[in-house]
Amino acid sequence: MLRAFVYLCVATALLALGFSFQNTTIGDISTGGFLALTVPAAIAVNASRVEIRMRWYSLRYRTKIIRVSAAYLFRIKIDGKYLLVKGSRFPHYQPVGGVFKVSSKGQAFLADMGVQDDDLIPIDQTSEADLRIRVRGANLAKFYTWFDNRNGREDSPWREFHEELLATSILPSEPFPYIFHEYQGRIVDKIRFSPHADSQEVIISDIYELLPTQEQGDALRSILEIQEDGFGWFSSDAIKRRGVLPGVPNVTPIAEHAQKIL
User: How many independent structural domains does the chain possess?
Assistant: First the structure.
């Protein structure tokens, strides 16, 4: 956000200088400098928009307790179809992925900030150390800065890939001693009131795309036509419609957040 502020300040100063010295060499140079800074300023502002929004939330909801859930989602696409797995807690199909875990260092940082565990989903061995929390609104921007720095939290989608696809034998382990993946970006939903959580809520989703090797692609294609209860392959249209397709009597429930991988 500081970079965006600096760009905007310099660009504004150059524009003012250009107007002050119109039809002069100084004016031409100033106007040219303003135009040259316009693009990087726009890029910097765009990159900072989430941080700016979080600062606004921190001000507006400073006395409220905000529920935050931060997860990663895997885009696994073969021949125009997306692989979704059936959720263990909710009976719908969703992208491979899950809530980020927090390290002991991260837990200490969050504890110092007064962050509380979220009780919407029972805490057990599976959900322990999940980045599903409740934070006072005044600290929301500080939390997001910590999260964005990736220090003290999980920073790889491998764990859920292994747990949901390899440990369950949906995919054979042999072709997947490792995976290549590409970070596609982050979606931060606008704050909204959640009746289930009985509080304001912010959902953060980091999107990764699997880049399979030839052998891994072949393994994925080997299950492309298999229909099982635990997973399925779906078109983008089916995901957008959440499993409801014209002329198809059977409805396959697909989670709303699956649209984020499209």
Answer: 2
